[in-house]
Amino acid sequence: MNRIFILTPLIVLLVICIFSLVYLLSGKDPNKPPSALLNKDVPIFESSSLYNSKDIIKTKDLKNKKTLINFFASWCSPCKIEHPLFFEIRKKYPELYLLGFNHKDPPSDAKKYLEDDGNPYDFVGVDSDGLIALEFGVFGLPETYLINEDGKIIYKFMGPITMDILKNEIEPLL
Amino acid sequence: MSSLIGFLSLVFAIGINFYLFLSRYIFKFKKQKFNLFIRLSSLLTLLSFFSLMYAYVVSDFSNYNVFQNSHSNKPLIYKISGTWGNHEGSMLLWLSILSIFSFFFSFTKNIDGSFQRLTLIIQSLLHILFGLFIVFTSNPFLVNSILVNEGLGLNPILQDPGLAVHPPILYAGYVGYSIVFSIAIAGLFQNTDDEWLYVAKKWSLISWTFLTGGITLGSYWAYYELGWGGWWFWDPVENISLMPWIAGLALVHSLMMVRGEQAIKKWIVFLSILCFSLSVFGTFLVRSGILTSVHSFAADASRGIFILLIFFIVTGFGFLVFLLKEPKKSNALNLLFINKVSALVINNILMIIATLTILLGTIYPIIIEVLYNKRISVGGPYFNSTVIPIMIPGFLLMSVAPILSWQTNKINNSKKYVLAFIVLSVLVLIQSYFLNFNTWGFVGLLLGFWIILASIIAIFSSYKIKINIKFFKIINPHVAHIGVGIAIIGITCSSVFQNELDFNLNEGDKFIVNGKTVLFEKIETTNEINFQSLRGKFLFDIEKNQSKEIKAGKNYYPVSKMITSEAGILHQWNKDIYFILGDQKNNEWFVKVLINPFVSFIWLGVIIMMYSGLIAVSRR
After folding, report:
1. CA–CA distance from B35 to each of B26, B39, B41, B46, B95 (Å)?
2. ipTM reported for the complex, 2 dp
3. Which residues from B are below 8 Å from A25, CB to CB?
4. Number of folded domains in chain A?
5. Whose CB among A101, B48, B464, B556 lies 3.0–4.6 Å from B10's, allowing a Cys bridge?
6. Taking chain B, what is the end-to-end CA distance rounded to the nearest angstrom?
7. CA B287 to chain centre
8. Residue among B4, B341, B287 at smallest CA distance from B140
9. Which chain A residues are within 8 Å of B367, Cβ to Cβ?
């Protein structure tokens, strides 16, 4: 009994060390959580345009082209920081389809935001109740997803994208 | 040049420790000479540290570390604190503090010479491990391969006086446990008399006091700098520091028992090893970047693996020695239904359960991610609903523990305490009934006031009141507990009874906070030496002639392109009024005002605990 009590710390130590070692060796980055959606099909969604409620975009519209999906809102200040980068992407990759989802925002605020800061998106979908974000597993704004021609999610980033991330992580996939 | 001196002295110091380590088996020399070498290695390590600091102060950008983490237009204090504001420098600080502890330990008198030497040899071993870690993975003396005139700057969030001193004090706590660890291991090897327990007590008190100071500075910083209105967030890095703190508290209390009974040696050794293990584990978790937190440091797998190895060696070695060389049989514990020993044992068990609960919550995300490749986050809700209930019986017990007897079941003046407790309960109940009733608020206030009241009764009924140093030493345990009571009241009030108000304001608007009129006078922008500041100027209580000015806003640091928030706090003895300036929208500013009652009690309570820690060091 006494022996077991004294052995416990050593066993706990071993367990902790093994898990930590596996974690370290697997090269995981705490800032990039694994996404359950990675390499899976884009969730089914349907959204109307911010500017014309009759203009609808659906999951199947994303077939046969690369799409960059960005969840943003006028009330989200980190979104403001990454915003100019989308113009850069726009200029450099005219082929790439830029889809913005306006998340839980009054349409007037969203329009004003895109008027002030410019609109880099090919299509701005409304996600006023946040259901589309829920399907995508959005954690917090902004979040950015890259979809390949087959309609699979090949990349996800949480937080504002930066020049480094664009150069090192997104561009190699384009 | 200074980098070269720094590097060489670092390497020489490691070499001396190698020599000392081997001295046990190969070279034999006298105690005098041994101590001389220990001190020499300490001084060399310090020289190395100060050479790095010198490089920072003179902005020597030929040093790669300085180039990465400093900027010539920083104020001097942040050039100095920049020395440990980065991974490499902070590890060198770690090693320097280890050396300082060895240095002072080599002067300890009233201790068996061979025992002291063995303790210092174990310290040397630790020095070698961490020294090699620095040299091979975290060398702060690398030469910058390109010629530059300017550095990249220090993370602005670290440019704060509170945070400048927070790491050294915190490290003094962490690393202080290395001495306690070495003493305990040496005690296991030599297994002679129990003199080492008294020595261990002093050092563990010193470490605990530093750790308390370090944690408090960190949380005070979080309170006014992060701008979230709270002071504790159950952030992984906070948890990491809390674990050795609680284990250290258990250790200090166990060491008190040595006065009464020679019984709990095995437990003390276990705690001594645990405290330092948790410190090293904390260093590993933070430095490997394995956990995300406000303390974001660059992640580097090779460093992580190296520290993990050190953690494994140190902890494994410690517990293995513990397994193989059990302390010899000691007297059985004198456990009665309620006496001092049983109260201390129960408190120790509770503290260890709390420590393990925090440990589980902290490493659980790592385990889940390895097993299921899913990211989960364990935060406030888990810790609040587990750790706090575990601690509550302990708090109840501590209010009476110091007056319990060592030998018998009897409590002197027990009627007085029962009566006082009933009266107090009724009073707190009435108070809670008239102010909004809240269960946690009630429990917290009752506990806090009860601990204070019981300690005061104990002081007045058990001792003759005299005003001299001896008297303060005698009542010290009670004083420490009064500090805890005050802190509990502060913690309860500031978290349970916090009040939040939101406003959208134009410049010149007036609004009401806590029954007083506040004027949002204007927005000011100024250019400081290394940042631009934007401040909202508020005048509190403008109806009086002496209205108080509060400034809340943000700083923008152009070198690192970062914005930090700067809360404006009006401190009053019974509450803090906490202003946060949000974003501007349609010419209106979003302003959040938090009323945090009795926050000052937390800091006061902690200061009292630290005072008692220091008094206890001088008491045998």
Report:
1. 17, 6, 10, 17, 18
2. 0.79
3. 301, 305
4. 1
5. B48
6. 48
7. 17
8. B4
9. 19
At B554, which helix (H) or strand (E)? strand B548-557
Pick B289's closest partner by Cβ from A10, A26, A30: A30
DSSP state of B508: T
The model's pLDDT over B223-279, given as tens digits with 9 standing for 90+, comes to: 877 666 678 878 788 889 999 999 999 999 888 776 545 557 888 888 999 999 999
CATH of the domain at A91: 3.40.30.10
Phi, psi dihedral angles at B563 (to 5 degrees) = -110, 130
Question: What is the rounded end-to-end Cα distance, in angstroms, of chain A?
Answer: 62
A31 contacts on B by Cβ (under 8 Å): 292
Q: What is the pLDDT of residues B369-388, one digit of tens each?
A: 788 776 666 777 788 889 98
Give the H or E element holding residue B524.
Answer: strand B516-527
Q: What is the pLDDT of residue A130?
A: 75
Which contiguous run of DSSP H or E holds residue B504? Answer: strand B499-505
Which pLDDT does position A32 carry in this prediction? Answer: 55
Tell me if the bond preceding B381 is cis, omega within 30° of 0.
Answer: no
DSSP class of residue B382? H
What does the pLDDT look like over B514-560, one tens digit per residue? 888 888 988 888 888 778 888 989 988 888 777 888 898 888 877 76
Average pLDDT over residues B321-348: 74
For residue A143, the one-letter residue type is E
Task: Round to whole Å and give the CA distance between B265 and B188.
Answer: 10
Which tokens go with B70? Answer: 């400093």
Q: Do A19 and B370 touch (CB under 8 A)?
A: yes
- Name which of B128, B100, B126 is nearest B11 in CA terms: B128
Q: How far apart are CA B66 and CA B3, in angstroms?
A: 10
User: What confidence tens digit (pLDDT) does each residue in A112-132 have?
Assistant: 888 888 888 989 998 887 778
Calculate the CA dihedral of residues A50, A53, A59, A60 and round it to 10 degrees.
-130
Give the pLDDT confidence score for residue B332 in this predicted structure: 59
Please identify among residues 532-571 of chain B the ones whose CB lies closer than 8 Å to any CB of chain A: none
Tokens at B552, concatenated: 């809340």
> b/e string for B365-397 if b means 16 or more Cβ within 10 A?
bbbebbeeeebeebeeebbeebbeebbeebbbb
Instruction: Evaluate whether residue A114 is within a structural domain.
Output: yes
Of residues B370 and B173, more confidence is placed in B173
Is the Cα dihedral B345, B347, B350, B354 positive or negative? Answer: negative
- φ, ψ of residue B579 to 5 degrees: the values are -105, 135
Q: CB–CB of B322 and A33 under 8 A?
A: no
The answer to whether the Cα torsion of B120, B121, B122, B123 is positive or negative is positive
CA angle B144, B150, B152 (to 5 degrees): 80
* CA B475 – CA B465 distance, rounded (Å): 10
User: What's the Cα-to-Cα distance from B219 to each of A9, B69, B94, B555, B565, rounded to whole Å?
Assistant: 30, 24, 21, 20, 16
Question: What is the overall mean pLDDT for chain A?
Answer: 81
Separation CA A75–CA A51 (nearest Å): 19
Structure tokens at B169: 């004090």
The boundaries of the domain holding residue A129 are 36-173
Q: Higher model confidence: residue B97 or residue B284?
A: B97
